[in-house]
Amino acid sequence: MKRHQFEQHARHFRSGRISLNQLIDLVFGDGKEVVVLETLSEDDIVVASVASEVGIPALKPRPDDAHKGDFGRVLLVGGSRGMAGAISLAAMSALRSGSGLVTAAVPETIAEVVAGFDPCVMTVPCRDSDGHFSSVPEDLKQQLKVADVVAIGPGMGREVDRYFLQAILELSQPIVIDADAIHLLAETHSMIKNRKSATVLTPHPGEFSNLANTEFSKRGEMEAAAVKFAADQGCIIVLKGHRTLVTDGSREYRNDTGNAGMATGGSGDVLTGVVTSLIGQGYDAFDAAVMAVHIHGRAGDFAAEKYGQASMVASNIVDSLAAAFKSHVAVGAEVRIGF
After folding, report:
1. What does the angle CA 154 – CA 281 – CA 147 come to, to the nearest 5 degrees?
2. Which listed site, 61, 96, 146, 218, has its alpha carbon 20 to 30 Å from 125?
3. 68-330 — its CATH code?
4. Binding of (6S)-NADPHX: at which residues (predicted)?
5. For the segment 15-58, what is each residue's pLDDT rounded down to a tens digit?
6. Domain boundary assignment for the chain
7. According to the annotation, is 86 in a ligand binding site?
């Protein structure tokens, strides 16, 4: 058993999530049949999950002779009139997470605004209708063909035609679906089950409730539903919130980095950029999601140390990604959960 796995099991035992017998079975047995219980509160029900818990993958070394094409062509689709910041934060965080090339496809109304956020982000102005996407133009189609991974949703708005999302779902590349694109996915009942490449959904609790068409009163109930949804649809769910859950229906990771200061507009857009970037660099989609939520939370912790939880904003998290990645690498090949 690796050290980070032992430390995780020990924390579960200390917090009361598993018994002593379960801890012994995990350490000395295969641990596959142990059910980990998450204690919510005295008034909450206890929800059991049979998915196995995982640790955090290590970063791959970057070859000395590498060039920008080796680290992924990332395409982020989103933004709308009044919401240029969301897609810009996602694009900037993708750059800070190691992507070689990052392009933001946005309505032409806001293209100059988005381009002004960071000169390293390329933009594709798309025809729009009152500041929102109206169709998939030819120049965007070309970008979709060459991208290694596509993310859609940050700041997109809900006025987008369902066929726009459908065109993204039909891509052969991995895709990350966030924010308003999740609401559109729920409203149009577009299926993701038959996609041949990885599909990652990054909903906050409200978005997941809409996606599942269910109101949840307990976090544990929502997490159980997320595990089932991921298994049924063949996707990866990143259920955001305190101790963000990442699951593909058979594996689970609950994050232990981050703080309440990250409850600020744009924080989720930063996470989308990190997830998308790591997938574009060739990481397995589930591993990318796990690593992304851990590093994103770690960046939030660095930002809170510098600015305080009350005053930190999402751009501070972007600025802190460098420190978070450096601390991740510093631990070495066997990355521990928590620092």
Report:
1. 60
2. 96
3. 3.40.1190.20
4. 86, 155, 204, 269
5. 455 566 666 666 665 444 343 434 434 343 333 344 566 789 99
6. 3-53, 68-330
7. yes
